[in-house]
Amino acid sequence: MSFPAMDLIAEKLGEVLKAQNFSAAKEYTDENGPCVIFTGEEFAYSILYDEKKKLFQLRSAEMDENSPGEWQTAASWLFDPETDGNGDAESIANDFCDTVQGPKNMALMTQKKKRKKNEDGTQNADPVFLFNRFVNIFPDLREDMTKERIRYGKVRAFTFAKTQVAPRCEALAEKYPDTDAFDRMCTVLNDMYANGDLDARSCITMAILNNVSDTAFGAMKEKLSEDLMKNYKYGRRYIGKEVKPEKKKKRSKIVARALDDSKH
Fold first, then answer.
1. Are 152 and 109 in contact (CB under 8 A)?
2. Residue pLDDT, tens place only, 154-213
């Protein structure tokens, strides 16, 4: 059962989340008190008022088969309906809205890139699919993905692969190269390079493999597929280097004249 402060906060947050393609607020059952939920394609937010602790919580969770998974608290504010009023509720609403919007322009961060379909109707796996595969090996990666979405509205694929995935892969390869977890990690890299889209492949080569130590890479390359190693053959040459775009070649006078004649 909602109350004025909950309605005010839910309405304000709902306006922000609507622009990010989330559903309108729906009542959600929670034993701790009144709760509403906003669901998206891959992610959900909820506002809970914990009656015992007298506080509002903004929570987030990954969607799992159309249901939210484990809730993570993104922000919390004390609020006593008997002493606090609309001004306090407004402050809470503004903070919750700032939390889900992050520091970047909302219109940019809410754009979701659809996975491209192959000719046979199947879909290439994108970077987020790649990261979800890694969650089975590095369970704490899921929490970092949640934080990334809360702050930026999406998972910044290349940055996330470089700063969060690569260090975990490096540590596993250096410390535990003879384990089942290491073998599974290499299997994920091979499978995703074979079936992933161009963004996922770039994350594997330029963001992950190019950001692990030589020791780690030495252990990993023994397990990496022929296809991946063939295409990554010269990848490590670009570590720390800025790759300039290829200059546009000038057309020869003969070719240029032939093209111009064909237009007439």
1. yes
2. 888 999 999 999 999 999 999 999 999 999 999 999 998 988 888 999 999 999 999 999
- State how far Cα 146 lies from the chain centre: 8
CA distances, 103 to each of 106, 107, 153, 214 (Å): 8, 12, 9, 35
User: How large is the C-alpha radius of gyration of the chain?
Assistant: 24
pTM equals: 0.51
pLDDT of residue 264: 52
Q: What is the spatial distance between Cα 1 and Cα 194, in angstroms, rounded to a whole number?
A: 50
- For residue 263, the Cα-to-chain-centroid distance in whole angstroms is 47
pLDDT digits 0-9 by tens, 98-125: 888 764 333 333 333 344 444 444 445 7
* Helices 141-152, 127-135: crossing angle, 10 deg rounding: 140
8 A C-beta contact, residue 14 and residue 24? yes
The encoded tokens of residue 3 equal 């109350």
Quote the longest CA-to-CA distance of the chain. Answer: 85
